[in-house]
Amino acid sequence: MTQPPPVVEVRALLEALGVPAERFTGGDLESRSPIDGALIGTVASNTRGDVAEAVEAAHDAFVAWRSIPAPRRGELVRLFGEELRRAKAELGRLVAIETGKIVSEGLGEVQEMIDVCDFAVGLSRQLYGLTIASERPEHRMMEIWRPLGVVGIISAFNFPVAVWAWNAALALVCGNAVVWKPSEKTPLTALAVQALFETAAARVPEAPRKLSQIIVGSAEIGEALVDNPLVPLVSATGSTAMGRAVGARLARRFARALLELGGNNAAIVCPTADIDLTLRAVAFSAMGTAGQRCTTLRRLFVHDAVYNELIPRLKVAYTNVAIGDPRHEATLIGPLIDGDAFQAMQEALDEARALGWPVHGGARVPGVAGGFYVRPALVEASAQSGPMIRETFAPILYVVRFSELDAAIELNNAVAQGLSSSIFTNDLREAELFLSERGSDCGIANVNIGSSGAEIGGAFGGEKETGGGRESGSDSWKAYMRRATNTVNYGRALPLAQGVKFDI
Ligand code: NAD
Fold first, then answer.
1. Residue 174 to residue 69: CA distance in whole angstroms
2. ipTM exceeding the 0.90 mark
3. Statement to judge: residues 257 and 280 lie in one domain
4. How many domains, the chain?
5. Whose CA is nearest to atom 40 of ligand 1?
6. pLDDT higher than threshold 90 for residue 488
7. What is the distance in A from the centroid of ligand 1 to the CA of 66?
8. Considering the entire predicted model, what is its pTM?
9. How sure is the predictor about 495, in pLDDT bands with cuts at 50, 70 and 90?
10. Domain annotation covers residue 5
């Protein structure tokens, strides 16, 4: 079935999502759908002055919001979750059209937002502190968590709405205000989320206006947010190059950075692996989202004993996988985000060929005119080197053989990034070794699951050049609060700690 031109569909979706037409027409910042490269909206960019104004207004909102009881703050996030449930179909489809990911992944992204809202609502009654034994008589020592202020959120194109929700849902229940700079490649989905948020906020009398705002523009606008002294924390998701710049700027003014940067994720396939399961997990992790997830599987280490069983089947999957308009139900791989991404992919594959490595796939395929559709590439590398040690944000999977698990674990860890990793095995000892301190050095380590597709309940993030930040589940909320240690003396004497005497 042919689909309507993206531009026609986008207008209807944005209107259904409550975004007034003047917000996505007549601006200077162009949004193009990767489906056909056509212009789907133009949004007015903000200036540095607008950023300052937005942050000041957000700070005022924070001053009011921080004193609202946390469970009431949770009520706002609960209502926002309701808006998302109501609008899931439209927003998921808009994500698919603006990023090129398939509709089921667009819907999955919205589901992730709903899930993190639910998580944050529960959290709003669980921002627990501690009581600590004091060494002094008639003293009580405790640790409590207080709101931070305005949280800046910078997000990447590939998860244009979920990453904001991971941060915002937690930041808001923790008593903060948020200012969001979405990717300049995906401003329309951001406008839609903002409209849904405002609908929810209008139902909560205690929610100040300007509690959550967006600022639209390129890196320069992000820098203005990063440099603003009223922003104590910036959560920035994107390339390692971006994180290096943002992290340094924040360090200069001693502000906090929560960095979620590039990955170069690996999986190890052992002799006892369930090959059917491994095949499916590898296919989704490596080819899904056209290789444009931070957790995409990019390196595969396969034991000699199963190489000839797995790799030919994987090649068949690579040859047959359905590529095309991401709105078609049968499509599994949509287009790359743009021509630059295609170029970067071709350069990496040329480097691989120059090293003498056989490259299967990787060529442009006809899809919808104007889009960059590629057949995913499987590269049989003779060693881990060259393009394999960097993140190319495209569907390229480098495959290397191994014979000793220790050597494969060493290769897993021998890159600059440390986001996600997997082992496929039915040998308990191998699985536990991989998860042990001698195993994977990544923030995420899985057994018999691919590297991509995390659940919101766990803390998400990675080590080394991935930036060290943790978002979403577990105790990630602590990043959005400041810790205060309070000691109360309820006696009449003033004993000093460590037995110090100071009698005047
Ligand atoms: P990008 O680095 O080009 O841009 C990300 C965001 O940072 C955009 O909003 C951009 O405008 C902004 N930005 C860029 N330079 C900046 C600067 N100097 N100061 C302030 N803001 C700046 O990334 P992208 O191409 O949109 O996304 C792909 C990258 O993001 C990949 O490397 C991917 O691995 C990474 N990513 C990481 C995670 C994670 O959770 N670890 C999640 C999604 C994407």
1. 10
2. yes
3. no
4. 2
5. 260
6. yes
7. 29
8. 0.98
9. very high
10. no
